[in-house]
Amino acid sequence: MFSRRQFLLTSGGLGAAALVIGVLPKFSVSSALISDADAAQVFEVTHTDSEWHTRLSAEQYEILREEGTERAYSSPLNNEHRAGTFSCAGCDLALFSSDTKFDSHTGWPSFWAPLDKAVATRQDRSFGVLREEVHCRRCGGHLGHVFDDGPKPTGLRYCMNGLAMTFEPQAA
């Protein structure tokens, strides 16, 4: 898997300073390079690259910190149907309630709404397609993308990587 950041680094698009963990670039509408108008976003929870590697599995690191995508139907959270809360695997922020989870038949855990003030979005123009990337508002970890083909009441489908989240079942 080749992440957008790896591509930009190997193509000379970003300097090492732009990859300081805790800072994720916003990509310009006209190119994949950071413009002056698209300032980097700083997050509440930050760690060094080494600390992120220690805290996360290699697969989680690739998704959360390098904006990778897990294989469809590979996450056990896709089949998680108990009542509970889905949280960020990077910083433990509660992201989604099981009350908003639905089977989108896409192979990834999907939700029609996040919890209040849990996620943020930005435009993603990788692969020549305009999408809305979803990331944890506290640590900036890449979670997935949101699409406008979901069920009522929002009509949205938050298509998340299961490895980017943990699940805590509701106490009985």
Automatic annotation (TrEMBL):
Its EC number is 1.8.4.12. Gene3D superfamilies: Peptide methionine sulfoxide reductase (2.170.150.20). One of its GO terms (molecular function) is peptide-methionine (R)-S-oxide reductase activity. It catalyses: L-methionyl-[protein] + [thioredoxin]-disulfide + H2O = L-methionyl-(R)-S-oxide-[protein] + [thioredoxin]-dithiol. Residues 49-170 form the MsrB domain. The keyword Signal applies. GO terms for cellular component: cytoplasm. PANTHER family: METHIONINE SULFOXIDE REDUCTASE, PEPTIDE-METHIONINE (R)-S-OXIDE REDUCTASE. This is peptide-methionine (R)-S-oxide reductase. It comes from Pseudomonas frederiksbergensis.
